[in-house]
Amino acid sequence: MRVLESKRLILRPWKISDLDDLHELTSNKEVASLAGFNVKNNKMDTLNILQQFIIDSASSLWAIELKSLNKVIGWVELHKFLEKMNEDWKEIGFALSQKYWGQALMPEAVKEVLNYGFKEEKINSIVCSHFINNIRSKRVIEKCGFKYAKGTNDKLYYFLNKVDFELIS
Fold first, then answer.
1. Which single residue of 13, 52, 110, 164 could bond 57 by disulfide (Cβ 3.0 to 4.6 Å)?
2. Is the pLDDT of residue 85 over 60?
3. pTM
């Protein structure tokens, strides 16, 4: 996996030294609720997650580092879309520390990964979803050009294809 860089962010592999930053994010009840994971109440639980993140960094998961602070503030991942058997489709997911909400940092990170996915991995379509109550993720998804596809009882799904991305970028 390649390191990606934008104006304010570095998207890079996870390191063991990211434990405190990751724990800050995973121990936040609001972030956990909106992103759909269980709160990590101690660093040992977070360390277990971090160890898997380090492995996943080889292919699909970036730590989002804020350049001005040299601090990991979230993650973004690009992985096989499990609900679709089409090899040309991938799914993007993300989470951001609450302290950094409302600063347009996540759209900046997502657009870097979209550019990478469409241009370097030659993906044809990328899917994204959010839980129905997660309005912040909905705004990120829409800012990045995704179009609504379908909804379920608890999630809304969006898609973006390569041609549409090239038109808006």
1. 13
2. no
3. 0.94
